[in-house]
Amino acid sequence: MPDGSASQDAIYRARPTLRFGGQFDERAGNLVQRMVMDESEGGLRALELVLSNWASTTDGSAELAFDQSRNVRLGGPIEVFGGEVARPCELFRGHITAIETILERGKPPELRLCAEDALLSARLARRSRVFTDQAPSAVVRALCGDLGLTPVLSGLDAPTASWAQIDETDLAFLRRLLARFDADAQVVGTDLHVSPRADVQRAQISIDAEHDLRAIRVCADLAEQATAVVVRGWDPSSGRAVKAQASAISNAGPGEGRDGAGLLRDAFGDRPDNLGHLAVSQQEEAQALAEAAFDRRARRFVRAVGVTEGNPNLRVGVRLVMRGLGARFDNEYYVVRTRHCYDTQQGYSTEFCAECAYLGGSQ
Fold first, then answer.
1. CA distance 183 to 192
2. CA 269 to CA 275: how far, in whole Å?
3. 139-152: pLDDT as tens digits
4. 154, 171, 255, 334: least surrounded by Cβ within 10 Å?
5. What's the whole-model pTM score?
6. 296 with 230: CB under 8 angstroms?
7. Its domain of life (predicted)?
8. pLDDT tens, 184-233?
9. What proportions of the chain, in percent to the nearest 5, are helix, strand and coil?
10. How far apart, in whole angstroms, are the C-alpha atoms of residue 1 and residue 7?
């Protein structure tokens, strides 16, 4: 099990390295002032990069570093690597969507770049269409074909139904479809990895609160918990009502202890939730929706928001074993969001949000 340390070296150099058009750009890497890379469930990583736009020349003068650059351009490819400079890990791969110049009296000019990963094309495509008599996995494959992505799929082979995309972007439609089955999508290079949360098997990292964390807040909250979730619909072909209920966790994710639904029932009695806003016509789909909604609530029972030393391996889908938080909160969590940050004052840090369905200790 890897620990939470980003490097075993006595001196850890974590300045980001950059690649434009497939080529490493040492000059650009040396001019990085600030970097923020956001990723979360649902895909579409976003990058913000600020570079000093003032550089020395060989004749002893200075010039705008990127004024005539053919690589730093709108729509151009960009890759960012983080972690130890001698052993960098890819943090981001995508295309530049915005370029901004920043001028302030008494300071050198700066260049701000914004970029998004390969799901950018899904965000820009808005369509209306119907996928008739298809499994969710077939719909995902069709979307990948439209977007030039290679699907890497797990499960989602049922139910067979008709799925309507009505004046939605491909990304919004994909997220809505996958949410019905408690599944997630992430881009890796030009591959779109799609699988139910139960099948996500990424790395496991162990963190000690005293040595690896700069700060953390962990909260167990009953406010959004439910003892059951009920989904109702109507099957027009048979003229019968459809009803499904979930009252036990089918995919809680990592961790162990008491779940939120049980603690809610002990404290306040049965508190079911009815989902009446969903259009459902099949029993199988209704049951999947009820279980997915119950599991999502359950997993958000305990949420940890923290900051650790910069670690490029701390990504969405990682299982995070945290110790040193006390018996109540020491557990294994699932990372749902990360934010990789760098600046010349604070260095490299990684902010994260992680979830666990269980509370330990005497609870």
1. 13
2. 20
3. 999 999 999 999 99
4. 154
5. 0.89
6. no
7. Bacteria
8. 999 988 999 999 887 887 889 999 998 999 999 999 999 999 999 999 98
9. 20, 45, 35
10. 15
